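[retry 2/3] PhzF family phenazine biosynthesis isomerase: previous attempt timed out, resubmitting with same input.
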Amino acid sequence: MTRQRTHPVSVVHACLRDGRGGSPTAVLDDDPRFSDAERQRIPALLGTSHAVFLGVAPGGTGADLRFFTATGELPACGHGTVAALAVLTRRTGGGAFTLRTPVQSFAGRATPKPDGDEVDATFETGPVRLREATDPERHLTYQALRFTPDTRTPEVRVAALGRERMLVPVSGRAALAALQPDLDRLRRVCDRFGLLGVYVHTPPDSDGRAAARMFAPSIGVPEDVANANSTACLAAHLGERGVPRIAVDMGDRLGRPATVTGASRTTASGTVVQVGGAARVDRVVTLDPAQDAPHRGGRSGQAVCRVNP
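[retry 2/3] PhzF family phenazine biosynthesis isomerase: success.
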């Protein structure tokens, strides 16, 4: 008889806007019996773009984080970190946490909101490295985004936080909403230049409010509901221009309004950003590797999700 492995999985809506929307993200305790192929399957099975696997330290004040999409492991994921902090807060009541990924350690903090349902979560990134985009990077990305000559704006930059991604400005929210990129072509461009994706953003208003869309077809995410690490990169870029704090709206074209905040500061090692958002654990499901398709079952508000090893 084969022993089944069952695991509770929290589906967290990360980077909510006024209590709505947010990016659905799967968060579960890691298990050494999971293969990476199983980890890659979990986002699709649960209808999320990403899954976060926690290795929780004794006492609950720290955790190792691994991030997966359907195409493989990522070195970092900002909204996934926000989602992980929401789950850790539900277990511990919140506070300060030490978080570790395969590439770095960093501090996170989460505080339950007064109604007890949502959590405000922030974390500090490592140094953000910025450079100007090369002419081939800019030209081919413009073509993939289907920019017309009047859409193009100056100062396209490439930012590295984990992996490089391109920051592309547009004139305003109407131009941003009208974008219909050629995703196959954009994937080829990102693969050619080793980019995580392309983050298209508006200029901030006088209050530091902006909007953005993140296209990352190379990692299996045609458009991300919320991308906190790319927002951190934008915060670092704008910090150099005298804008110390931003709030970026995302997800509207996907019907899931999201907002990510970022505040930059300069350190001896470079520009670092405190980035975050509000999050809520929407539901808990049970992961069972005995079958290969999710189905509803059990008590109200729960589900059984089965994945073959």
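[retry 2/3] PhzF family phenazine biosynthesis isomerase: Residues 78-92 form the longest helix (15 residues).
[retry 2/3] clearing retry counter.
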